[in-house]
Amino acid sequence: MSDRFVIEADKGVVGVAVRAPGGFRFFTSNPHFKSLEGKIFRRARVLRSRVEELALLNRRMAAARLGR
Fold first, then answer.
1. What is the pTM of this model?
2. Structural domain total, the chain
3. How far is Cα 13 from Cα 29, in angstroms, rounded to an integer?
4. Which domain holds residue 59?
């Protein structure tokens, strides 16, 4: 696995993961994913899962705001 790679959600790049002591550190410029900024995840798949969970939550919140 690479030392760094992009993380995608909702058909776009939402951040990058960089290998760090203890796993992978996540960096984002997307305000919807700021709660994950700088956190270290032991495994890349755990990071991807958390990003997907947050993306789903963001979609649900946006739909609720639009009254769907």
1. 0.86
2. 1
3. 10
4. 4-65
